[in-house]
Structure formats: structure tokens, C-alpha cells
């Protein structure tokens, strides 16, 4: 059940620096509570207040404000405000091409044809791991989409739409070699099966040499070998109803360590 938080101070002035002083005093009190920092579940000021009460927290904060650190610090706010144009003076937002909103990638859900085939751990997923051979388009949904796609979509959704089979047979081969020792070979095949049925097949082999980019003796790029096979079966009655089934099999090995 939601609860009303107890009040530490009814009002704290900002212009004279009292807000910054009290904020640091609260953090200093919290930092001394080793029992609170024993695990993440208890590492909250709320746990302290529930156990000892808001009056005890206020008493310890007032005691902390008598310390010498208060006179040794500068709590003026002049240098901490944007006095002119806030938009031009504000620091640039972090750039993260893996998220529609610029959030960290763990809050972005990646889908394949509307399905979470890339798993729940978005932080371990890279867009460069997707072969472009069967990629038809990319759909981006900005903003919170957790009500439709789950808690992993707080930063948005990126849906990768694959190519559909056409009336004629299609083949495409892709070979790539990078200066960092990566090699990729991908084959994409599409064929009609019946009047309303079609089949696509994506097969790829990927490898990376263990590479020390900065010459410090440690591998910056891990060595790996990965193989992927993914067939897909499509049905379309050309009247608005569609169906597709897919299965994906992959196997990989990886090695880090130092450069011999």
C-alpha cells in the first residue's frame, strides 16, 4: 500500500545553500550505517526511518551539520545555475544509438517481426550481430511501451521486420571482412512453396580473431566462432490474414585472455 513519507524538514531554503548542506548531511548519516549497506534491499534511507523514526534521523542530521566539513565547503549555488540560456548552456544528453530515447540499452526492447526472439537481456545484444540480408525495414516506437511489450520496453521498442517471400526465387550472399579480424559469411534464400505459402532461409557463419587494439597485452576483442541457421515459413491469403513460423539454431564459442 502507498504511504505518505514522513517529513524531515517542512521547508529548506535553496538560495543560501541550506538545501545542499542538509542533503550532504543526510548522505553522511546514511554512509555511516554499515548495516544498511550490507545488501541492496536495505540500502535505503527509508529502512533507517522505519527502524529509528524520522525524529532520530533529524537529530543525527542536525548533529552532522555541526561538523567542520560545513565551514570547509562552498555551498553557494551561483556556479550551479544556468544564468543565461538554459538550453544552450545545458550539457549535451548522452548519445546511445541503441535506444530511441537515448536511455541505456537495457531499457529498450528489440523485437524480430514483433516477437522477442533476442531474449530479455538487451545489454548483451548488439545491432551489428544482425545480418542485413533479410532485413526489410526497422520500426521504432519511442517512449514508454511497457504496457504492451513488458518491463524491458521502458525506453522504447525497436522492431526488425524481415523480408517476405515473393513470387520468384531470390538468393543473396554476403561476405564481410574487417580490419579488426572479423569475418562474416551470410546466405539468404527465398522461394514460394504454394499459392499462399513461402519459405525463407538464413544461414550464416561468423568469426573474430582475438585482437589487442591498444597493444597492452590484453585482448580488446574476444575471439569467437558462431554459426546461425534460421528458416521461416510464411502464409498470406492476401486478404489481411497472415501467419509465419520460425525456428532459430545457433552455436558459438568465445575466448578472451591475454595475447600470447
Main β-sheet, in a few words? 6 strands, antiparallel
- pLDDT averaged residue by residue: 79
The beta-strand count equals: 9
Please state the structural category. alpha+beta
Radius of gyration: 28 Å
Show the helix and strand layout.
Elements: H1 18-31, H2 45-52, H3 54-64, H4 69-72, H5 86-89, E1 108-112, E2 135-142, H6 146-149, E3 156-162, E4 170-177, E5 182-192, E6 197-208, E7 223-236, E8 242-246, E9 249-255
Parallel strand pairs: 1-3
Antiparallel strand pairs: 2-3, 4-5, 5-6, 6-7, 7-8, 7-9
Helix pairs in contact: 1-3, 2-3
Structural description of this entry:
- The protein has 260 residues and is an alpha+beta fold.
- The protein has 3 domains: 18-89, no CATH class; 96-162, TonB-dependent receptor, plug domain (Ferric Hydroxamate Uptake Protein, Chain A, domain 1, Beta Complex), CATH 2.170.130.10; 165-260, no CATH class.
- The protein is built from 6 helices and 9 strands; from the N terminus they run H-H-H-H-H-E-E-H-E-E-E-E-E-E-E.
- A hairpin with a 5-residue loop joins strand 7 and strand 8.
- The longest helix is centred in the N-terminal third of the chain and has 14 residues, at 18-31.
- The radius of gyration is 28 Å and the shape is elongated.
- The mean pLDDT is 79.
List its salient traits.
30% strand, Ferric Hydroxamate Uptake Protein, Chain A, domain 1, alpha+beta, 9 strands, 260 residues
Question: Care to give the gist of this entry?
Answer:
It is built from six helices and nine strands.
